[in-house]
Amino acid sequence: MGGARFIPMSASTAFLIASTLFATALPPAALAQQAPPPPPASSTLAAPLAPGLSQELSDAAKMIHDGQYAAAQAKIDSVLASDARNPQARFLRGIVETDQGEVDAALSTFRGLTQDYPELPEPHNNLAVIFAQQGRYEDARTALESALAASPDYAIAHENLGDVYTRLAGAEYDRALSLDKSNKSAQAKLALVRELFAVPPSSAAPKPPVPAPKPAQAPKPKK
Hints:
The protein is built from eight helices and no strands.
């Protein structure tokens, strides 16, 4: 969604931190995401129940944290059956989809939330997490700027945006070196970026998947 940094995303880690609008969260790998939301390994500490969530959705959030996706989905579907626009239930559904590798479905879910509830920063942040995981840093930047337009004090989005800018800068330093291999300044700056993200040089073996932003929590409907 605590702060978050550009690290590889993993399913249950999405529940790391909660923002003022979202009650529960997990940390994925690259950018910071919040929960009751998406992606890297499961966290060692149980996420607290979000005060803004109904008991049914709090149970679903805990089930997601524990990797019980089928049971969590059943709870979420039950809520959506009577309240199809419920932003918290839809957000949790997006987390389940992200954690289970259903990327297209997760993108659709979070996009739908940003359209129906543009004032909620977390769905924008989680979109950025997925975009960053795909190496789509310009799209991630745009999503994070939308999150900050909705909530200027959203610390996780600020940190994620810094990570995205750093990734974009690294690509430009790499491009500069491809045009002028003697550019010592670009070499030094690129080395710093690679050290920051543990990115191997282009001549090394295949690069590991690009880390994604950390997830955000389920939104608390605004009155």
